[in-house]
Amino acid sequence: MVGPQQSSPDEAGAADGRGSDGPPRWRRLLPSSWRSLVPGAVQLASQAKEGWANDVTVGLTVAAVAVPAALGMAELAGVNPVIGLWATMLPLAAYAVFGSSRQLIVGPEGTLAALTATTVAPLAAGDADLYVLLAASLALVTGAWLVLAGTLRLGFMADFLSKPVLLGYLNGVSLMIISTQLGKLLGIDVSSEDFFPRLGEVARELGDASVATVALSCALLALILLLRRFAPKVPGSLVAVVLATVVSAAFDLKAHGIAVVGDLEGGLPSLGFPRVGLNELSGLVLPAAGLALLAFADGNAIARTFATKNGYEVNANQELVALGASNAVSGISGAFPIGSSGSRTALADDAGGRSQIVGLTALLIVAVVAAFATPLIAPLPKAALGAVVVAAALNLFDFAGILRLRKVRDTEAALALAALLAVPALGVLNGLLVAVALSMGVFVYRTVRPHDAVLGHLKDVDSYQDVHEHEGAQIQPGLVVYRFDAPLYFPNVPFFVARVRALVDRAPSGLRWLVVNAEAVTYIDATAVDALSELHTELADRGVVLAFARPKASMRRVFADTGLTAQVGEEHLFPSVRAAAAAFEEAVGTG
Fold first, then answer.
1. Degrees to nearest 5, angle at CA 280 with 84 and 143
2. Three-state DSSP string of 283-308
3. Counting C-beta atoms within 10 Å of the first and last residue's C-beta, which end of the chain has fewer, N or C?
């Protein structure tokens, strides 16, 4: 019997342009092999039109915060404030196409802006034009590093910046950022580039501080912080910038000794690759790698946070590509390296933004400001930009978070403090290198010296537990059960062998069996196999049986393929510690 003819999903959705798995028209235009490269574009094309109106409204709110933030970050990066607007525009478009997060807002960010200034200033040697070219080149090289890392699927690398080290580093950066703004807040000229010399210079110049500038700075900073505390949905930075501009224009603050931004050459950016020589470009390669690592670590954390909150997933490798593309177009725009904004992303999420329509709307508003409204920025006091930057830096500062790390381990707090002190002592970029080195050092140390334990029997719960953690755990005479809590491979094999030998040497006379609880050994390499073979022979010569409990299937396969099973004996591989202990008791009882 022939039933009614079934139409394909694409045919079924022909009337409204949609199929069962998305709009067929754009799907036919975009090859399936390309869709994974532009997840943002795919998500936008699939989004229901009824959600656009709300996201456009949210985009207006985000733009209201993005404009003053961009001006402040440009000052921090050491470039013309309008370039901060350029650094906001095309990066938002690039991320909307390539990004896997529906809500992440990219743009100028305090840490990267500070790193830009410390990287570019020595190379520019006072040449303002070269400074701008180098800043744009730094964005391009940073973008290239990010795209390369994404292509090589190195998204897991962000995990090498541990939370304590990253927390300490960001606290240090916040102090550095605040120190760079002291001149604007006090109305004095500060030329020192390093943290402690800068503080010394500020202390010496305090007598020349402008009372009017200090009063304005304190008032604006207090306004931003009070709004953040008591009216968090009000964009405090925008309120402060608008209010300061209006007051400056009305009362001619420049005539009262308060520095203002002055006339800006507005307009949209001219696209093109910055023309710098290979010598200058080579000096940016390593700093750009550091910026790339930090930009991704921060951006990936923000993207994952909001994706989890809203029930979708992000792809770490795709985030590398998206941030790389965003930095590349920032460089082509003549701007500077950009990252991800936690505050603007949080604002978009809190206001109900659910797609990159938010970012694209903000892009259009920022472009209108850059093209037509820069004359309105001319009377803006520089102290207002300093207040905006300092308020953003204070948002990064979380010393209480470092103190909370002591509840985990004192060493965690010590690592955070070390990273914090490295930034003002060595500079932002060298501080980043120290932070990475500390994270890698912790990783290596915990790999080479992993946690381990001697297990004893708890009769009340009929289980084997760490004798140091459980007071009632009893070690059976003649039996040592040793648990090694890590993969067993070349970096930690010497430690493993030394620990086993020490246990055998310290054991009371009459030791008959040593059982390795291998439940945490998820990987084993050739070095470990050879070491276990030698250890088996050594223990056998001392009359001690080497046995294994809870080896994983992969470990059993390696044992079988290398002949270690035949050497140890299949009868000495057990599914549980209890089974191994029972076999030991039977062997001793019959021996």
1. 50
2. CCHHHHHHHHHHHHHHHHHHHHHHHH
3. N
Report residue 385 CA to chain centroid gap: 26
Domains of the chain: 51-444 (no CATH), 452-590 (3.30.750.24)
- Chain position carrying tokens 């532009």: 38
- Sorted by sequence, the CB contacts under 8 Å of residue 113 that are 6+ apart come out as 73, 74, 76, 77, 336, 337
Give the Cα separation of 294 and 540 in Å (integer). Answer: 52
d(CA 557, CA 336): 53
Per the model's pLDDT, the better-predicted residue between 301 and 185 turns out to be 185
Structure tokens at 493: 């094999």
Q: Which one is predicted more confidently, 587 or 50?
A: 587
pLDDT of residue 180: 87
The residues facing 260 across adjacent strands are 381
Distance, CA of 369 to CA of 371 (rounded, Å):
6
pLDDT tens column, 176-227: 889 988 999 999 998 887 889 999 999 999 999 999 999 999 999 999 999 9
Terminal-to-terminal C-alpha distance of the chain: 76
Query: Which token pair is 575?
Result: 């599914």
According to DSSP, the residues that pair with 545 across neighbouring strands are: 513
Which amino acid does the sequence have at 230?
Answer: F
Estimate the share of the chain in helix, then strand, then coil, as percent rounded to the nearest 5.
65, 5, 25
Angle of helix 52-77 versus helix 110-124 axis, rounded to 10: 40
What CA–CA distances, in Å, run from 69 to 87, 193, 295? 11, 23, 17
5: which 2 tokens? 């003819």
Helix (H, G, I), strand (E, B) or coil at 206: helix
* Separation CA 255–CA 52 (nearest Å): 47
Question: What is the C-alpha to C-alpha distance for residues 253 and 384, in angstroms, rounded to an integer?
Answer: 12
**What is residue 269's three-state secondary structure?**
coil
Beta partners for residue 22, in sequence order: 19
The rounded distance, in Å, linking the Cα atoms of 115 and 98 is 25
CA atoms within 13 A on the CB side of 544: 25
| pLDDT confidence bin for 35, thresholds 50/70/90 | low
Mean pLDDT of 392-409: 86
Contact between 324 and 21 under an 8 Å Cβ cutoff? The reply is no
CB distance 182 to 346 below 8 Å: no
Q: What is the dihedral of CA 539, 543, 545, 546, to 10 degrees?
A: -10
pLDDT in tens, 481-520: 999 999 999 999 999 999 999 999 999 888 999 999 999 9
SS3 state of residue 468:
coil
- Show the CA angle centred on residue 423, arms to residues 417 and 429, nearest 5°: 140
pLDDT higher than 70, residue 11: no
Two structure tokens written together for 521: 């050994």
For 32-61, give one letter per residue: b (16+ CB within 10 A) or e. Answer: eeeeeebbbbbbbbebeeeeeebbbebbeb
How far is the C-alpha of 295 from the C-alpha of 339, rounded, in Å? 5
Query: What does the longest C-alpha to C-alpha distance in the chain come to?
Result: 102
Where is 484: in which H helix or E strand? strand 479-484
